[in-house]
């Protein structure tokens, strides 16, 4: 405890009692700091002094006791000595009720015990138990129990002293004690509603109801190296046969002995060489995580091969084993072939679409449409998804009109993406309507501030990947919100929702990992959603639900309920079971509690974050369209997709037909695996992005055929300049040489 002294150099000692309340208690949270001044033979609780009715701060801050002069304190003690406390019946009651007709006096600790209200603002008023302010609740508002959004214990929804309701959120209730501890920890700059993040309205109401909000910085900001533990990364090779002669803990960055952590759990690692990985950018999963995925059915039962084309979060392919150097890399889109349509071609002279172009016979690949027609439902569904994503793109472009030219710079450490992003989003000058500039602080070769859309997309891509694998969500592929007490306390669910909204409007990728249940809760409200068994991520809870659901007799059902009594009681799902059919209602109750009611506070906070820039409102207006980007991964790139993405501009002196034919033929070769680059590599070369963002690219990608030696990708303009060649082979060789080497240099 820090004991302050007067301007004279006094030695602090512990005095037996406070001169105003007469108590020896030393509890700063309840009575304020207890201070002793030896020279004046004076000990006083800070709150007792603040709330005393007959004293004011007549001195400067460094005079007496924070501006309360010693002579004034003596006079107040003498005045209070004549007044009897209406609660403990002892003299020395220095605090009186401010109601004009009320004559009650009391000590500060007695007032706390009797549930009086002390307002730590303006004139520091005090109200007795009869005249204290009370929060008014609408008559129509339902009574019952809710979760305190700080400690998450149950709280009664009643206007009582120990319970407080948020003035800005309908479903936010708190224990008074929890709020007071939160206020003392957060201070005036960070104390706000834990659900909607409102500060002004929330603080005003809490001060009125007697919550003391100190004028200081948050406790976590004052603690030195408070976040040091978060910077520690797992550095150990767990492969059965480690090849490193310097040991399993040896880690040499930018070499084959660099340790790569499991992309799923992060708690296992491997040297690149020990797992035959050529690049640090390749994804790696530990044995435990692979076995979990295998059991959940995420890994298809195929013959083992060196090239794995399993889809990852960023749309790229992942090499699980060392690839054969002679085997060309397959594009993810090569599993399905499409009959290429003509690209959009605009001539500079008249800007009119040119006629349909046909591939030369030498370069054309014969394809059959029968595989597509054999699955009409799949084709229609894919077509429907494409239309929905076009609708989303138009909606997001409309929302982007809010973004102005004023720039906000975010300093981002790619290796610590979450903390640096969180710090950037919480900085005072950050506004979602400002243009975002990204500065990667841990990249030596990047420019000081990379304002390109490519850098911004890369940042949001890393951020969405982190969110998907964070403790805020649970589940395998289709995820729901989890219940993370620390995240609730630090308001991280609000920040996550805000980050997703900002990503969508500012040209970043979509999440793509939401479950239908989570999406429906956000759009239609949790009270209108019926969860399913697949939404339960906890293995033990899922097993309990299955045993109840598939019980084939009343006795087995009752036995299961008996064995799960504690769990059901804690969930509030105990109900009389008189027939086997009662199990259906019980299963429904458990699902609603575990999937929805349990996370109602994180869900409300997450919804408030998604309201940023009006994203949630648009989701509620166009639920079908937005579900295509929230609940589905981006469509795999295909030659057709890339072809439609680019508009070809050509001057009059260029044979645009032949140039376009070479381009289309090359895309088809890449898609069919007859190239050393992938469609993702081409998109990355031009735009700096592996995938097409939901809002689309700005500016729209274009192609120009010029008399140049090698292709040029201009990421600032999303423009691809292609060389004019005599033969297709020359065109293909130049494309592969340039793209492969450019990306290799960037990775290095």
UniProtKB/TrEMBL annotation:
Record GO cellular component, one term: nucleus
Protein's pathway: Protein modification; protein ubiquitination
A Pfam family it matches: HECT
Keyword terms, alphabetized: Ligase, Metal-binding, Nucleus, Transferase, Ubl conjugation pathway, Zinc, Zinc-finger
Molecular function via GO: ligase activity; ubiquitin-protein transferase activity; zinc ion binding
Gene3D superfamilies: Hect, E3 ligase catalytic domain, Hect, E3 ligase catalytic domains, Zinc/RING finger domain, C3HC4 (zinc finger)
Domain PHD-type: 15-132
Xref: PROSITE patterns: EPHD
Entry's localization field: Nucleus
Main location per the UniProt record: nucleus
SMART domains: HECTc (SM00119), PHD (SM00249)
Keyword Membrane annotated: no
PANTHER family: G2_M PHASE-SPECIFIC E3 UBIQUITIN-PROTEIN LIGASE (PTHR12420:SF37), PHD FINGER PROTEIN (PTHR12420)
Protein name, per record: G2E3 ligase
UniProt gene name: G2e3_1
